[in-house]
Amino acid sequence: MKKIQSASHPATNKVIFDLTSPHVAKGIKILDFGAGHGHMAQRIGEEAERKGIEAMDCIYPCEIVPEEFKYEKVKCTKIGTESKIPFDNDFFDFIYAIEVLEHTPRPYDFFKDAHRCLKPGGTIITSVPNLMHISSRFSFLINGFGELFPPPSKHAKNAGRICGHIMPLTYPYFHYGLTKENFKHISFHADRKKKGCLFLAFLLWPLLKLSSFKYSKQLKRYDKELWFENKSLVRIMNSMDMLSSRSCIVVAQK
Known about the structure:
- By secondary structure, the protein is of the alpha/beta class.
- The protein has nine helices and seven strands; from the N terminus they run H-E-H-E-E-E-H-E-H-H-E-H-H-H-H-E.
């Protein structure tokens, strides 16, 4: 079957596939939330078939416009814009959403529904454009808009475009949403390191480390309990991965 093209960056897709594919096995159910044309669903389906598993028994894609889904070996379920997952409780072992949540008005509702649909010990993986790489920070400083988050459009015809990026959340807020729904072992993963970002990050490294140190002390003085809750996030925000990664990929377990 012809390879289905992806709207997401190949490096992002590789990280998601590498995190998910080793766990493909008989009885494992995986949700592809916002599956697009079916690029990742096809890759996971072919991995299942390589292991002697029917693709339809493994990968469950869903999409707002299922008519555009091209991977014919599995059914694509229709979803709306309200972040609801149309499956039963404790149904999935893995849920991933690649470059989806920046388009949704209620990403925290998605975390709540994902927790409902995952089996105990199940994994959720999300990726969004990384607002916190250093070029994006400079863009925000100069023109008020981070990279890949231009002025948004309210027109439905633009929902899938970059101007359809309506939810500019960064890693601490995904961490908050996941923690609030009792997800555990939350971690940030990088994909493609942007060369321009790496250059700027190395150039400004002493300043950035000093800034993290001073901000952590300021937060601790303000509210020690809040500092203790978030001190690891303060460190991550000026880490080399955060300063240079194209995407913000977040992994957590139920």
